[in-house]
Amino acid sequence: MLLVLVFADPGWAAAEPPRPLPVTVQAPAELAAVAREVERLAPAALAAAADLVGGDAAALLTEVAPLSVVLVPEGSAAARAVPPWIAGYAISGRGPGQLVLLPARADRYPDFGLESVLRHEVTHLLVDRRAGGGDLPRWFNEGLAMAVGRKPEWGDSARLTLAVIDDGSLPLARLDAAFSGGESEVHAGYALAGDIVRELLSRHGRASAAQILDGVARGERFRDAFRAATGETLADFETSYWDRRTLLDRWVPIISSSVLLWGGIALLALAAIRRRRARDAERLARWGREEGDAGWAGNSPEEAEIAVDPGSEATRAPDDWPPRKPDPKLWRRR
User: Fold this and answer.
1) Long-range contacts of 278-283 (CB under 8 A, 24+ apart)
2) CA 109, CA 153: separation in Å to the nearest integer?
3) pLDDT above 70: residue 328
4) Fewest C-beta atoms under 10 Å: which of 14, 50, 323, 331?
5) pLDDT (mean) for 165-176
6) Distance in angstroms (rounded) separating the CA atoms of residues 125 and 109
7) Quick check: 281 and 325 in contact, CB under 8 A?
8) 55 touches 132 (CB < 8 A)
9) CB 106 within 8 A of CB 114
10) pTM of the model
11) Highest-pLDDT range among 92-106, 166-180, 244-258, 285-299
């Protein structure tokens, strides 16, 4: 077990001196290097999550201390107990906070890196504490974690576009069910949840998240806390969100994305290969006819047949001709 003291950023609570926040990182020997990386990343992860959930950051962080981070190796019983697309989870409740991370899965969507996984799960922990353990929609909780975890990339845009095209008016109530589905449904759920929460924060300010969590902590229903914080009903917000995602808005991300660019390049490359093969086949056929004519001109039928036999030593072409079929391995992506 590694014990590290993580010092709070003075900017969180300017009126108080920074206080040490104990964090324990438990890891097997083969993950010792990852444990040291978690130690390094923990301060910024805690700062980012505390900044979004708002309130008394120092008190909130003290409440979850000492924060325990457990690193689980792939192939262990603990790793097999959760779906393969899960890279970490937070264990909520009273008392010290606990995170479980699976570093071998950190580079997968929706996190794409150990730092993002850590930020994502720390946010879940602090969101739950900030809401006083009250009920929150899964999409809101995951959307906040996505907002802290990392900046959106083209992969998010592609998944979001596909999700919108598939169901352009998915009710938020049904969105929660996506996180209990298969991997593709979960990924679509992450993309939509992150985009919806970013829309909320853009429209009503980052403080709206903390205000909603405050209301839930006071015992209000989420939709009532949402209206008090934003001035609009959850239903109106949902309708306006889907209205904004017009048909043009759904297709623009695809047209301008790297996915289409590289897809177009791949199609052009395939077309060029087909044209090259057709020209090669035509050239070989022409040469065969010319050699055949020459063979009949001065040789017997038997000699002419041997003269144009592509398998004979006399007419075998160099090793690099005719062009051979490309090795499939060269086209296969990792």
Assistant:
1) 280/322, 280/323
2) 11
3) no
4) 14
5) 67
6) 20
7) no
8) no
9) yes
10) 0.66
11) 92-106
